[in-house]
Design a protein that fits this description.
single chain, alpha/beta, Rossmann fold, six-stranded mixed beta sheet, three-stranded antiparallel beta sheet, 7 helices, 34% helix, globular
Length: 253
Amino acid sequence: MLGCLSENMQPGKIAVRAMHPNHPQSNVSLANVTKHYRLRNSVRVVLDHVSFDFPRGRNIAVLGLNGAGKSTLIRLIAGSEEPTSGRIIRHVRVSWPLGFSGGFAGSMTGKENVRFVARIYGREVAQVEDFVRAFADIGEHYFMPVRTYSSGMRARLAFGLSMAIDFDCYLVDEILAVGDAVFRKRCEEMFASKLQKADILMVAHSPALLRQYCDAAAILMDGRLQYYPDLEEGIAVYGRLIRERQEAAGTPS
């Protein structure tokens, strides 16, 4: 059955969980991390010798202007990209970006992909398979190669797999739900139930969505991360950055 919000939650708001004394103080730590890309005539710096702890028990909105590198940061934390230098330490079980389907092997069936991931994460294969097949609801396509799927079917399979495995910290890069209205509601309800026992690092542009799921913020700018334990302060600073860029470009706000 799909989970529901606990009684002490405000409607439309994910509650802050009390941190268990045996849990580490941080979900993820960046230790002197640098990430840059060499372009034809320049170097694009995303992180510049950053040391930063994402605290446990907080749901953090990752904010930054377009091109700051928010999605790159999420991929680094997930482990799908490596830093140029430094270390990323995952103290807890960290998910891949929610709904990410880029890791599927196109020549393998949905069933084979699901079983493979379940084994990698040390989960009971039959339980994961049963959950994903029921949740994704893609019928006989589940037994066909993923390369034959529509983008919608790939997203359903990916989201179902994301929800089949329990993590301590979920990564979200814009995508919180997929599919039609019924399936999106199913995604949102299931994700809300997961967050009763887990934290979230979320990239999103909608302040309403951030306020629904997050209680703190981290702003990525000029290769640095600044933490704001008060979400509203972080959103206000981010808003000023947007206005300053618009004014510098002569664009009306």
